[in-house]
TrEMBL record:
Record's protein name: Deoxyribodipyrimidine photo-lyase
InterPro entries: Crypto/Photolyase_FAD-like_sf, Crypto/Photolyase_N_sf, Cryptochr/Photolyase_FAD-bd, Cryptochrome/DNA_photolyase_1, DNA_photolyase_N, Rossmann-like_a/b/a_fold
GO molecular function: deoxyribodipyrimidine photo-lyase activity; DNA binding; FAD binding
Family of the protein in this entry: Belongs to the DNA photolyase family.
EC number from the UniProt entry: 4.1.99.3
Keywords: Chromophore, FAD, Flavoprotein, Lyase
Source organism: Hydrogenovibrio crunogenus
Necessary cofactors: FAD; (6R)-5,10-methylene-5,6,7,8-tetrahydrofolate
Secretion signal span: none
């Protein structure tokens, strides 16, 4: 039986059910990644992907295997491979969102054309989402009951076998002669641009690096996670999100490790459960996108479809505000620091993500989709499920969302979570002369200094948002 294992976002060797099944059932195996330039992803994702694929190629080579990387129209490339190598079955891992939905449909079309078996492994989540339903048999729309059900079912998690232990047997068939192992040119070109290189200087990709980071967090960060996670100047989070997004480490494998650490009641177990609950938000986001795929581009609550103004070139002032937000030039220090961190590293602290999203959607009155688009292009961990849930949560139009009338006060948030201004000074060194008390709202200290004044008055924009809410309520457009 000749089997193709098609990789998408599960760039690892261990804990890989599709690869494990192929090793168990087939004598001839090809493991391949298809890069289709027409199925675009964000620039930061592209940079990470290129580096991760290079590392994965080395990992396969270390075990006498080979990872093929092919470029071009996916449907045509898959068609060619099936014909050329007489592929009899294709294994892949089901992925959510764009562009995977399109490619998975194309794979079905090609396999049906040649009567090739296509087998999807829905294994990137902790448990099948059709098993995580409420008493009415419907998907959860609120996180807490979802998490309660999920946590009660953790004992049902299926164990992993280790594909790495049996990989060597595939060498004779994976190493087909004449197959180019270099990365696709378009992928290499995008990932070597100056901005991409700058971002990737802050990261190490790959399965081994992901596990090392996880172990380091367990040993050095987990015990203090609950106390430190909300403070952007402190390295209080695991920063495993891009590794999880690209499948360099499986979230279920992390859960298994955490559960083995639960030895006796105490502070350690409390820390485990706090972090486990945060990891479960990723599962909740994926469940929502799985059950409600339209939410990737439309608000879960349809009544908010036109609540926020779409970004339009017909409104130069709006475009100017959006561009200032992207560049970190809003004049609000905590907002600008977050956007500078994003542009420099491809990552932003989660607390600050909420603040910059609130400013854009409510102070600037710009549609959440414009912000989600920028995040999708610049975050190395840009994930269709997490990105959508996060933006709709802040905008107030998603599931289990913050109230649509609620605005974060960025100055108060900055004072609370970066009291000494360390985070602000790191990303906005021009504010170093200001004291820890002044730095959060420097325009209050030097009101005549134009460069430190916000481009949008926070008080006035808050009032405008509340008036807009009141007007729509009076028209019964929202409740």
């Amino acid at each position: 039986m000749k089997t193709l294992v098609w990789l998408q976002r599960e760039l690892r060797i261990q804990h890989h059910p599709a690869l494990e099944a192929a090793l168990a059932e087939s004598d001839d195996i090809i493991v391949a990644y298809f890069h289709d330039p027409e199925q675009t992803i964000g620039d930061a994702n592209t940079a990470w992907l290129a580096n991760s694929l290079q590392q994965l190629q080395q990992d396969f080579k270390a075990h006498d295997g080979r990872l093929w990387c092919l470029e071009g129209n996916f449907e045509q490339q898959l068609d060619h491979m099936i014909q050329t190598y007489q592929i009899e079955q294709v294994f892949y891992t089901f992925q959510l969102g764009h562009p995977f939905k399109t490619m998975q449909q194309q794979a079905l079309n090609v396999c049906q054309r040649y009567q090739v078996a296509l087998r999807a492994f829905d294994t990137e989540n902790w448990l099948p989402y059709d098993q995580l339903l409420n008493q009415s048999g419907r998907p959860y729309k609120v996180f807490t009951p979802f998490y309660n059900t999920l946590s009660q079912k953790l004992s049902e998690l299926l164990p992993f076998s280790h594909a790495i232990n049996s990989l060597e047997k595939t060498a004779r068939t994976i190493c087909q002669s004449g197959q180019d192992q270099t990365l696709p040119q378009s992928l290499t070109h995008l990932s070597t641009r100056p901005w991409a290189r700058k971002v990737m200087q802050h990261w190490q990709t790959g399965e081994r690096q992901a596990w090392e980071k996880f172990e380091r967090f367990l040993n050095e960060g987990l015990a203090h996670y609950e106390q430190n996670r909300d403070f952007p100047a402190v390295e209080g989070t695991s920063q495993l999100s891009p590794h999880l997004h690209f499948g360099e480490i499986h979230s279920r494998a992390i859960v298994f490790e955490l559960l083995t650490l639960e030895t006796e009641p105490g502070i350690a177990n409390q820390a485990i459960h706090v972090w486990l609950r945060q990891l479960a938000w990723r599962e909740f986001a994926r469940s929502i996108l799985w059950h409600f795929p339209h939410t990737e581009t439309h608000p879960f609550q349809a009544k908010f479809e036109t609540f926020f103004r779409p970004l339009s070139e017909a409104d130069p002032e709006q475009v100017k505000n959006y561009q200032a937000w992207c560049a970190g030039h809003t004049g609000v220090p905590i907002i600008d620091a977050g956007m500078k961190q994003l542009w420099e590293t491809g990552w932003m602290h989660n607390r600050v993500r909420m603040l910059v999203a609130s400013w854009l959607t409510k102070n600037a009155d710009i549609d959440w989709r414009a912000g989600a688009h920028w995040f999708n292009n610049t975050l190395v961990d840009a994930d269709p499920a997490n990105n959508t849930l996060g933006w709709q949560w802040v905008a107030g139009c998603g599931v289990d969302a913050a109230p649509y009338y609620r605005l974060f006060n960025p100055v108060r948030q900055s004072e609370k979570f970066d009291a000494e201004g360390h985070y602000l000074r790191q990303w906005l060194p021009e504010l170093t002369p200001y004291s820890s008390k002044q730095i959060h709202a420097p325009w209050q200290t030097t009101p005549n200094e134009k460069r430190v004044r916000p481009i949008i008055d926070l008080t006035e924009s808050r009032q405008r948002h509340l008036e807009k809410v009141a007007t729509l309520k009076s028209l019964n457009q929202i409740h």
